[in-house]
């Protein structure tokens, strides 16, 4: 199929070795981060905090959290240009939603006199809060929408990436507690440029299940 969207999605792959000499130009990084900010989420809750690890010191802190697990992922953190931590809110509440409502008022999407009514959407917060008061499964799902958006945006920008669930969530959440500002993190994304020889995945063909196994058209 010939289409720029399909070409982008065929171009992208999960990088398995980064060229540690290359950094993402600031202009591209700015576009990427703005695209991430524009990600859609349930009731526009935006129950996330993205922490961008740009410095060697910040990346070293991240590497340290792995301990003995995922040596390959650890190396990506060091060799990649940047690492994004995807933090999700563990106990999202009506108070958190107030920031969304007030921003809606600020941009004249909601009239100030309709502020109370705007909180009606919080029925979805209640619906997605479990018996222990946790909203993690709902807010974590929203961060995966951001991940999908990120992967597609990066493909368009011709920036390589490695989504990463292979990390020690408790250790990352603890190490970056201040920056995550009450959010928990079990998902990260390394971005940069693949190593021309060392990235075995760049040379492999794209593999996905065939159309008939994935879709049912009725
Ligand atoms: C949510 C998620 C978590 C992933 N975690 C890791 C990981 O920890 N380490 C890694 O090398 N690849 C990881 N991957 C990459 C997948 O294995 C990869 O996307 C999949 O095999 C498809 O290959 P492609 O991305 O090259 O098209 C992850 C992908 C996703 C979407």
Automatic annotation (TrEMBL):
Keywords: Flavoprotein, FMN, NAD, NADP, Oxidoreductase. Residues 10-193 form the Nitroreductase domain. Transmembrane segments: none annotated. Gene3D superfamilies: NADH Oxidase. Its cofactor is FMN. One of its GO terms (molecular function) is oxidoreductase activity, acting on other nitrogenous compounds as donors, with NAD or NADP as acceptor. One of its GO terms (cellular component) is cytosol. The keyword NAD applies. It comes from the Bacteria. The keyword Flavoprotein applies. GO terms for biological process: 2,4,6-trinitrotoluene catabolic process. Belongs to the nitroreductase family. This is Nitroreductase family protein. It comes from Mariprofundus ferrooxydans PV-1.
